[in-house]
Every structure is written in C-alpha cells, then in structure tokens.
Amino acid sequence: MRHIVNDFIHQAGVHCGSTALADVMRYNGFSLSEPICFGLACGLDFLYIESDTASPSRFFNGRTHTMEPVLFQNIGMDIHWQSGDEFPAAAIKQNLDKNIPVLALTDLHYLEYYNTKTHFSLHGIVIAGYDDERRVFFVADTERDGLQETSYDNLAHAMDSKEGSVPLANHWMAIEQIPAFDLVVSMQKAIVMNAKRMLQPPDQTSGLPALRSFASRMEKWDQLPDWKWVARFGYQVIEKRGTGGGAFRKMYATFLQEAEQLLKNESFRQLQPSVKMNQLSLKWTDLAMVLKEISESDQPDFTPAVSIAREIADSEQLFFENIELAFRA
C-alpha cells in the first residue's frame, strides 16, 4: 500500500523543529510564519552537556529540546510526545491513512539523504506518507523542497538512536485537529514562559545556569583531546545547523518584532525587545567566528571566546529579567 497525506505541502524553512511545526499548523489551516511558531513553542534556550564519551565531548545548543509539544500547549491543547521501546510504524501509518501528518524526533545521521557521519539528535521532521512496496516513508525536512524518502529501517534507527547528545526513544505525535485560539494571548503566554524558563530552568543543564557554566568551563576546553572539533562544532551550532544565525536569537528577534506590533503591553514595547535580541544574536555570531578561528589554529586559546560568552550571559540575564518585569507591571 502507498499513501501520502492529502494536500500536505511542505514549505522549506531554517530550523527543523519550527519548520515542522509551521508545516503542521499550515496543514490545519493556520498560516503562521516559522519565527512565530518558534516563539510560540518557547524555542529559545541554552543547553550545555559534557560527556567524554560523546563526539564532541562538549555540546551546547541555543534552543530547547521540548519545543514541539509546548507550542500546542500554549495554544490550549493537551499534547505530549508519545514514546517507547518499539518503533511505532503501525501507529504512524494509521494516522497517515487518516490524513494526519506525524511529527517525529530523529538522529539525522540515519536519514540517508543527509549522508553524514555526525550524530545529531532531536532533529524534527514531519512524516507525510509511506510506500509498503518500496519500504520507505516520505518526510518533510527543513530546507529541502518537497518530500524526502527514508527507508523503514533507517527511520527506525533514527527515531531510537542513543548516539546523539540526547538519547531518543521513538518520540512521535499526531496532531489530529487544532482548535481556534487567540494568537495574542498565546504569544504573551509564550514570551513570559520562555523568560521564566531561562531564569529558572528545570535543571542546571539548561537556561542561564547552563550558559554561565558554559562560559566558565570553556576556560579548560584547551585541555580536551577533541578541542578542535569542540570549537568547530560550537561554531556550527551557533551559525549553521538550522539556527537561522546567532544561536537562534535572530529568529527569536523576528518573533519579538511581531509580538511588539500585536501586544498592547507598553512596558514590553518600550524595552525594544526585538532590537535587543537582535543585538544578542550578533554577540553570538561574534562568538561563533572566534570558535571557528580556534578550530583552524594549531594551538588552542579559548580566552577571547570565554570573554564573549561571559558578556552574553550577563546580557541575557538582564534581558529576561526585564521581560519578566514588563509583564508584572
């Protein structure tokens, strides 16, 4: 049997998760831009993980790993990832047969159209069809036009990979129907929630505590056996790898610009949050360029990178504290 979700259209984007969310929202009749989807999902964050058995041994990222269900929760839906030990092929196909696209998290190493040796988990895609005879799924993926093909076996490996920075366990969700919602209310809720999570994260590997740890512990990165790869990967996850530039801060600035026009909170507008967030994105880009230079050098010296990272941490602390104050007024 072969089936592709009726009238599903993929619109190429910048970041995997926000592109997938925009595709699903559009399919359900809500034409929202990728930055708005990113903002509604409270996508901005900072994650820092150290593991001497991983490659690279120091991993960080500028976005949260929980964004997909958060968007739906912020528009009034009770949606969570489904997960388990078994590859959910039958459940995915059942939803596709009902013309319900399926969101999934993957390790892109196993998606053959990437042809990469690097493991990168939490890569969001939309599964939009399948072909039993050829044993392939049809998926929508970020900047690629149209639908890509991945084999049943490869998608099974991609969804259950333990080799990326965050182990996966067959995470998927099917969004059957999206009810009407108040965009302005949802935007304000998301902005406040994102600021609170940066300042008071659920654990020390995320938010401002993780960012300060990252800035401090970077001083010893010159002692790492894989310091070149750590620096290069750091450059990539700030400027490349679907961030939109500036560790996702540039994309979030676009969301905030939309929010400034729609929200009636004068204290929020007076902060000029989109301008300040864009300035933060430029600081992240500066950090990326320094890390790139370090990765191409013969001797590691992370001193200039540490200085920029500390400045970023101070600036982001002040930014999110001011956001919280604006909505308390």
TrEMBL record:
This is Peptidase. It comes from the Bacteria. InterPro entries: BtrH_N (IPR026935), DUF4872 (IPR032369). Residues 154-322 form the DUF4872 domain. Residues 15-142 form the Butirosin biosynthesis protein H N-terminal domain.
